C-alpha cells in the first residue's frame, strides 16, 4: 500500500533521559556543559525516536497523523509508529466532498504482535472516498508513556550515546587514522526494539 509518510502533530514534552540523569552518568558536577549535554541528549533521542529514528518507535508520549488513500480490502491499516497508546480519531473525505468522522465503535487497535494495526470493523458502514492520497486521516497517540515507562535498555542506550558525544567532540581523533569508535553496546541494547518500516 503506497502511503504518505506520517507526520508528528505534537512532539514529546520531555526527553526519555533528563539532564540530571545524563550528568550523573557522565560524573559531571558543574553546570558549564549543560547546553552541550542537553544537545547530546536531543541528538541521541532523535537517532532512536519517531519516524526518522532507527527504531520505528515513539519513545515518550507524542501525537502522530497518518493518511491512506482507500479502505483496505481486509480493513487492516498498519500504523507506522509503535507502541500506540490510543487513537484520537479516524476521519475521511467522501466522494461527495463531506468530512466524516468514524465512531469509536468502528475501529480498534491490534498491537499484541508489537506492530500495531488499525482494525476497522467489518460491520462498519464506510463511505465512498474522495480520490486523494490523504482521503483517510488517522490521528493517534504513540509512545511508551512517560520517560520512566521507556524501556531501560533504550534509556541506557541514550545515556551511552550522550557519553560518546561528550567524550569525543569530533568524528576523528588527532593522529588516529580510523574514525572515533562508538559503543557497540548501543547497537546491542536497541536491536530487540527495531521494527521494519511500514510502507
Automatic annotation (TrEMBL):
This protein's name: Putative phiE125 gp8 family phage protein
Organism expressing this protein natively: Camelimonas lactis
Cleavable signal peptide: none
Say which domain of life the source belongs to: Bacteria
Organism taxonomic ancestry:
Bacteria, Pseudomonadati, Pseudomonadota, Alphaproteobacteria, Hyphomicrobiales
Which InterPro entries does the protein's record reference? Phage_CHP (IPR011738), Phage_gp6-like_head-tail (IPR021146)
Q: Which residues form a coiled coil?
A: none
- Do you know which Pfam families this protein is assigned to? Phage_connect_1
Amino acid at each position: 500500500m503506497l502511503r504518505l509518510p506520517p507526520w508528528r502533530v505534537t512532539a514529546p514534552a520531555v526527553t526519555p533521559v533528563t539532564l540530571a540523569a545524563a550528568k550523573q552518568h557522565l560524573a559531571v558536577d558543574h553546570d558549564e556543559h549543560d547546553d552541550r549535554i542537553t544537545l547530546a541528549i536531543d541528538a541521541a533521542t532523535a537517532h532512536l525516536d519517531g519516524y526518522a529514528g532507527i527504531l520505528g518507535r515513539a519513545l515518550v508520549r507524542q501525537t502522530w497523523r497518518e493518511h491512506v488513500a482507500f479502505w483496505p480490502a481486509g480493513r487492516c491499516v498498519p500504523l507506522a509508529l509503535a507502541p500506540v497508546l490510543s487513537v484520537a480519531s479516524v476521519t475521511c473525505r467522501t466522494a461527495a466532498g463531506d468530512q466524516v468522522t468514524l465512531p469509536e465503535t468502528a475501529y480498534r487497535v491490534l498491537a499484541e504482535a508489537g506492530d500495531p494495526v488499525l482494525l476497522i470493523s467489518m460491520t462498519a458502514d464506510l463511505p465512498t472516498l474522495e480520490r486523494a492520497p490523504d482521503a483517510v486521516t488517522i490521528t493517534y497517540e504513540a509512545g511508551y508513556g512517560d520517560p520512566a515507562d521507556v524501556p531501560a535498555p533504550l534509556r541506557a542506550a541514550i545515556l551511552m550515546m550522550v557519553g560518546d558525544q561528550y567524550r569525543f567532540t569530533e568524528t576523528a581523533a588527532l593522529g588516529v587514522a580510523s574514525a572515533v569508535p562508538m559503543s557497540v553496546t548501543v547497537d546491542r541494547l536497541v536491536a530487540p526494539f527495531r521494527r521494519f518500516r511500514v510502507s
